[in-house]
Structure formats: C-alpha cells, structure tokens
Amino acid sequence: MGFVTIDKQKQKERKGSERVNDWNEYKLPFPEQELKDQAARCMDCGTPYCQMGVEINRSTSGCPLYNLIPEWNDLVYRGLWQEAYQRLIKTNNFPEFTSKACPAPCEGSCTAGLVSDPVSIKSIEKAIIDKAFDEGWVKPEPPLRRTGKHVAVIGSGPAGLAAADQLNKIGHSVTVYERDDRIGGLLMYGIPNMKIEKYAVERRVKLLQAEGIQFKTNVNVGKDVTMEELHQTFDAVVLATGAGKHRELSIEGRQLKGIHPAMSYLTASTKHLLDPSFTLDDDLNAKGKNVIVIGGGDTGADCVATALRQGCTSVVQFGKHGELPKERATSNPWPENPRIFSLDYAYEEAKEVLGRDPREYYVATNAFIGNEDGHVVSLTTDTFKQGEKSEMRTWDADLVLIAIGFEGVEDAVFEDMGVEKLGGTIKADNKTYQTSTDGVFACGDARRGASLIVWAIQEGRKAACAVDLYLDKKLAASGH
Ligand SMILES: Cc1cc2nc3c(=O)[nH]c(=O)nc-3n(C[C@H](O)[C@H](O)[C@H](O)COP(=O)(O)OP(=O)(O)OC[C@H]3O[C@@H](n4cnc5c(N)ncnc54)[C@H](O)[C@@H]3O)c2cc1C
Ligand code: SF4
C-alpha cells in the first residue's frame, strides 16, 4: 500500500539545454533507496492489469511481454536484485531496450493509477537490467545441445533478434541476415542515440554471438541470396523485415531539394555519429537551418531532437490533430492507454533551447515553394482551428522532414520472398505465424505493421515457438 504514503518520482533527466550539446542518453539513474521506495508503491493488486498486454481501442494496455511486474517490484523492494533480474528475463529478452524506449503501456493500466499516480514500472525495469549488467550477471549461456535444425532469420530488429535468441536457446542453429552494415534494425538506425545508445545494441549482439548465433550483415535477402537458396540450406525461414515503406506526401513541389523522408535523415545522422568518416550530406544537416517536420508522431519528435543537436535555427512540427487534454477524457477510461498531453523529451528541449514548444496543431501542408536552384525555401499550410475558418500560412523552410508514418512492408519483400500480402503487411496467421509459403514465418512490424519494440519482441518470441513446433512435426514426420 506504499502508494498511499509515497509519491511517484519521475526518472531524473539531464537539463534539456545541456543535453542538446551531445548525443548521449538523457535519463539519469535512480538512487537505489528511492527506487526501492518506488517499488514499494506497488500494492500487488491481485489482478495485475499492468501485465495484461492487450489492445483496447487500437491502443496498447498493459505489457505485451506479460512482464511479471508485481513480482519484480516486490523483489526490488526487498533488495533481491538478482532474483528480480531472473524474473525479468523470463519474459523479456532485451530489457535494456524496452526500459530505455518503451512508452510503458504497463503504467497506463497500473491499478494504482485509478486513485493515484501509477507505479514507476519502466524505471524499475531499467534499474534491474542496469544492475544486472553492472554486476556481471548477464553472461552468454549457449545451449547445452544442438538439435541439428537450421533456421534463417531475415532482419535484425527486435523481432528478428528475439526470434533468433529463443530458437538458439532451444538448440537450433540460427543465422541472422541483415542488409544494413550494422545489426539492430530500427534499434540501430531509426531510434536516435539519445534514446538508445548504440553500445547497448552492440553489447547484446556480442552476447548473442557468444551464444552461437551467426550474423551476416550487408546481405540483402532476395538480391544477394535468394529465398530458393535459403530453402536449400535451412529448415525454416523467419521474415522479420520490418515495415519500412514510408508514407509519401505527394503535393506540389515535393521534388525540390531539401525535402526528405524522416528515416533517411535519422539514419544518416546515426551513421555519421558512429563513424565520422561517413560524411553527413549537407542537405541532411539541420545546422543553421529553419526546419519543418511534417507529422505529429514519435518519429517526428526524434527529428526535432536531432535537428536541435545539429544546431538548427528553428524547428516546427506539424500535426494534423489537436492538442491532447491534460486529463483522461471520459471516452478514454482506465485501463486504456491514457491519451493525454505530455512534453516528450524533444519538446522539452525545444522549449528550453528555442523558447517554444515546436508543435503546431491541425495543420495540413499545401505546397512546397523553391528557389531558382530548385531548393525548398518555404511551404504553405492550411490551419484548421476547431469551429474557426481555416487560415492560410507561409513558413520559411530550408529543410523539410516528412514523418507521416509507414504504409507497411517494402514492395521488394513481396516480390523477392514469394509471400502473400494482407493490407500492407505480410499475411501470417496470428497463432502459427506461418505465411502463405510452407516453412516461412513472419513476425514483428512486417506482420503487424509499424508498432513498438515491446510488440516486436513479443512477436519474435511467439514466432520462435511456432517455428519450433513446426520443426518438431517435421522431425516426427520424417520418423526421427
Ligand atoms: C524513428 C523511430 C523511432 C521509434 N522509437 C520507438 C520508441 O521509442 N519506442 C518503441 O517502442 N518503438 C519505437 N519505434 C518503433 C520500433 O522501432 C519498431 O516497432 C521495431 O523496431 C520493429 O522491429 P522489427 O524487428 O519488426 O523491425 P525493424 O526494427 O524495422 O528491423 C527490420 C530489419 O530488417 C532488415 N531487412 C529488411 N529487408 C531485408 C532484406 N531483404 N534482407 C535483409 N535484411 C532486411 C532491415 O534492414 C531492418 O534492419 C520507432 C520507430 C521509428 C521509425
Ligand atoms: S516492456 Fe514496456 S510495457 Fe513491458 S514492463 Fe517494460 S516498460 Fe512496461
């Protein structure tokens, strides 16, 4: 019943105006005693909605990994950190990623949140995994025996890595193919360094390698290796190729220089950060520029934070919806994920550095305007204020980033892998994860559409289970 007497503490962060001068993570560790107090706020309510992991009204409620939250809260409160770590990894392959970047739908459905602030679940998860790494409890644990079965995983984002980890633990021999030069999918190129420092991805990849998983980078499956070749070598194939086909904004002037999809911008920024010999194209550098981000979501927020670190002159982010309410609306009751106003890290930084929240609401972009060199210089918008006449505005823009979401899986995946489509994603059963091709499975964003790390890990785990069952049946059918 600690929540009655102890207030929720927010994870401390470095000051916005200070952290925009580097690319390091912006969250600070919780002092151990404070953290134990926070864990004591959990009432062990008996029906832990925090770990239910379901979708209500198209939003996630509770942890999709069914993390055993009240159990590790109690263990942390009692100072039994190693036991807490053991509980945590029963359900979550990569707590070091979720505890840094998960939007924590667990907290939105925490029972304490009905009458008080929810338990600081994500901060507790972070403290457990950070301590486990610091204390050397996270060690490679290769399987004791090999099954003789071989599985190829295409794509090395959280879904592919979770599937590979689970299959390898069972004893199957796993090879992960990645077309990029580094492993990690959007954990590496997509989510910026200040949210997930890339050492954390590389550290996990080294552990998985030491456990026997093989990684092949710079291999574009479908082009460099065909699916036919994979079928000859492997007993099963898991497609975890993500949903990287971005939405386009086909309006007047789109062909002008200086207008880029958000992902090209974010990827170039991280590549340059990790390898300064990788030249950052001047057109993808926000330094000294007026930046406009089109799209009000999290990818747009990451663009804002990146532009601030590159030294932009100004940054504005357009969203087509209105500002969220400060409190839950009656149409958004607990345990639904709360749709309420918050000042994300990027907006806090923009407020401190440039003096204003960069978000503009109810904005629709009409056209881009260029100069004689064919470079964007401004754009025009219609601004719809509810109940008011629309207002036409012109904005200075030297760099425009389009962050209006993802349509689904890239066309090449359907052309090269011979699997059927369902909407924009790979058609695969939500229990067997089996695609339209025998022995080929799909998981993560490639199957469910652009989503979250926590869902990608869940899908990778479940797809691995399905592959294992499939291999068992194959083994039984062959009389072994
Ligand atoms: C900018 C941005 C920020 C985000 N921030 C967050 C966040 O803070 N929190 C959160 O929970 N989620 C966040 N997300 C969403 C999250 O990153 C994704 O839901 C998650 O990474 C999906 O995992 P995945 O493994 O399915 O696919 P991905 O991570 O997309 O990985 C797919 C991989 O497959 C590879 N691939 C594709 N085709 C081939 C091929 N033919 N051959 C070989 N390799 C191939 C790709 O190169 C890629 O590496 C963010 C997404 C973006 C775009
Ligand atoms: S993975 Fe996300 S939803 Fe699950 S406990 Fe951690 S922060 Fe909460």
From TrEMBL:
InterPro entries: DPD_II, FAD/NAD-bd_sf, FAD/NAD-binding_dom, Glut_synth_ssu1, Glutamate_Synthase, Helical_ferredxn. Residues 150-313, 385-460 form the FAD/NAD(P)-binding domain. Residues 20-136 form the Dihydroprymidine dehydrogenase domain. Keywords: Amino-acid biosynthesis, Glutamate biosynthesis, Oxidoreductase. One of its GO terms (molecular function) is oxidoreductase activity, acting on the CH-NH2 group of donors, NAD or NADP as acceptor. It holds the Pfam family Fer4_20. Pathway: Amino-acid biosynthesis. Its EC number is 1.4.1.-. One of its GO terms (biological process) is glutamate biosynthetic process. PANTHER family: GLUTAMATE SYNTHASE [NADPH] SMALL CHAIN. This is Glutamate synthase small subunit.
